[in-house]
Amino acid sequence: MPGDGTDRSELKAGAEVQKRSRPVAVADAIKDWVVSQGLRGGDRLPGEAEMMERFGRSKGTIREAMRILEAQGLVKTRTGPGGGSFVHEVSGERARALLGNYFYFRDLTLHDIYSLRRMMEPELAASLAGKLREDQLATLEEIAERYRHPATTAEEERAQHVASLLFHQRLAGYAENELLGFIIGFMAQILTDMTVYRKLYDPPNVELWSKGRAYQLQLIEALRDGDAVRARLVMSDHMATAEALMEAQEAEILKGFMSA
Amino acid sequence: MPGDGTDRSELKAGAEVQKRSRPVAVADAIKDWVVSQGLRGGDRLPGEAEMMERFGRSKGTIREAMRILEAQGLVKTRTGPGGGSFVHEVSGERARALLGNYFYFRDLTLHDIYSLRRMMEPELAASLAGKLREDQLATLEEIAERYRHPATTAEEERAQHVASLLFHQRLAGYAENELLGFIIGFMAQILTDMTVYRKLYDPPNVELWSKGRAYQLQLIEALRDGDAVRARLVMSDHMATAEALMEAQEAEILKGFMSA
DNA sequence: TAAGATTTGTTCGTATGTATC
DNA sequence: GGATACATACGAACAAATCTT
I need a labelling partner for A142 at 20 to 30 A (CA). Which of A57, A120, B151, B204 fits? Predict the structure, then answer.
């Protein structure tokens, strides 16, 4: 976790190091110290008292610095004896949330997201063919089971929609290439948020579900058979139809707005 | 910027809302309040005093909460009259840094990264054909100019290597699809970090540069001509050779280690 | 169960720094 | 330069959580 890129300086490195508002600077200093000590996830940091000494700052400032690191997901803190702050490996969930904050201000379209899904998901599927354990395949099957029958209420419809995205999230979690897995998982999360908050599930779309689930079952089969080519193809088709249907769904909603 | 996903609760939503360590909870409350007020980037938040009243917490706690939001890149704060805290749209730089923290603990291989670059960069190139303004093309040309001549020192070699990644970063910044642009920019940043800190530039590789620069110049030409097909093809070749050369470079370094 | 030890969490009062007018 | 309006920082006391005995 090298220099946080908080300052815009690219050249004037050595010059004025301690210009930024204190707690941020202290947080960076702590970060550097942790790295220099070679601390790993789970290792314990010094207590507040020692920090105050080591960095020559008051308790409040040290605490603000720790909050910064905590907000970034880099440390966890517990009270009580044996408590204190501990180096923490940033969780995928946390990373997705933080990145979500960035995209909160940009408005991604369904098209933006599906452009990427169309490139990436098929590759993920292919890379996983023959590589999943039986319990992982079973997990996927269990999820697909949740939307075996068409939903009867809007609430159920929503839950099923979310579950089908969970299918992709789980699949992403099995990726060997963690960068690929993270991005796909992140997109699944964005789509989940969009689904819920833009009510993309609302006019229930029976076609989407029967088709979508059929593709997912075919995919599981291909993965179990170790058929990479087929897995890629199935996922590719799945993405293409999903995009078309989602965008139709979106259009449907807009129509609803206009006629209202 | 909905629920930060800090807690692992998926179901017990309404139950015990204020269990987490206080400042984090206050930060979340402020976040929710900002959203509920519909505040946008640049809008001003209440001063510390008013915050203390509104959230019923003392100055110290409010400050810690603000630090959390600041660390996430969601607010900026200034001192002085007319100062205070302001909603801030998370910058790309900040988002990349935060995401970098996540991957700091996972070790991505060059192969992981290039698998993605091979899929994405060609699509980016194609999507930009005929879409760039002359000044943007000029910027790219200026960057390519920086490594026109082979480097003579290791220091220069490093700078050129970094600059050639900057070429891709800039290109990513021009993307219409912001998700695509962000990911490509992020990968360029990771590669920059790897280059510098694993000294991937060290045994200067003349071949890499002459080839790489040639591809980039061809790419600019194709972009200027609005030739999407050619842009995609050139970038595709560029990525393939870059990966091969980078991995050879990495192997070279390992050899150096072993014989040392 | 209860007491005590340990470590973070929270508050308040005060003083200092900094940018604008 | 001085007044003003803000954030920034410090220190001491007290509260809460959690582990041990």
Answer: A120
As a rounded value in angstroms, the CA-to-C1' distance for A33 and D12 is 29
**Chain A residue with minimum CA distance to B111:** A177
Q: What is the DSSP string of chain B?
A: ------S--SS--SS-TT-S-HHHHHHHHHHHHHHHTT--TTPBPPPHHHHHHHHT--HHHHHHHHHHHHHTTSEEEE-STT-EEEE-PPPHHHHHHHHHHHHHSS---HHHHHHHHHHHHHHHHHHHTTTS-HHHHHHHHHHHHTTSSPPSSHHHHHHHHHHHHHHHHHHHHT-SSHHHHHHHHHHHHHHHHHHHHTTTTSS--HHHHHHHHHHHHHHHHHHHHT-HHHHHHHHHHHHHHHHHHHHHHHHHHHHHHHH-
Whether the per-residue pLDDT at B67 is higher than 90: the answer is yes
Chain A within 8 Å of B81 (Cβ-Cβ)?
Answer: no
**A96 and B CB contact within 8 Å:** yes
Rounded average pLDDT over A122-128: 98
Question: Could you say which residues from 47 to 66 on chain B have a Cβ atom under 8 Å away from some Cβ of chain A?
Answer: 60, 63-65
Q: H or E element: which one contains A253?
A: helix A228-259
Residue B13: predicted pLDDT:
29
Whole-number distance in Å between B47 CA and D3 C1'? 20
The answer to whether residue B226 sits within a structural domain is yes
Q: Are residues B142 and B229 in the same domain?
A: yes
Last residue of a domain, one of A63, A87, A111: A87
pLDDT at B113: 97
Residues A255 and B235: their CA atoms lie apart, in Å, by 40
On whether both B79 and B150 belong to a single domain, the answer is no
How many angstroms away from the CA of A31 is the closest CA of chain B? 11
Interchain CB contact of B28 with A (< 8 Å): no
pTM of the model: 0.89
Extract the tokens encoding A242. 């999903």
What is the spatial distance, in angstroms and rounded to an integer, between the CA atom of B128 and the C1' atom of C17?
A: 49
Domain hosting residue B123, numbered range: 93-259
Nucleic strand C contacts from chain A, 199-238, CB < 7 Å: none
Domain contains A148: yes
With a cut of 70, say whether residue B107 has pLDDT above it: yes
Read off the pLDDT of each residue in A22-36 and give the average, rounded to a whole number: 92
Boundary residue ending a domain (B87, B112, B142) = B87
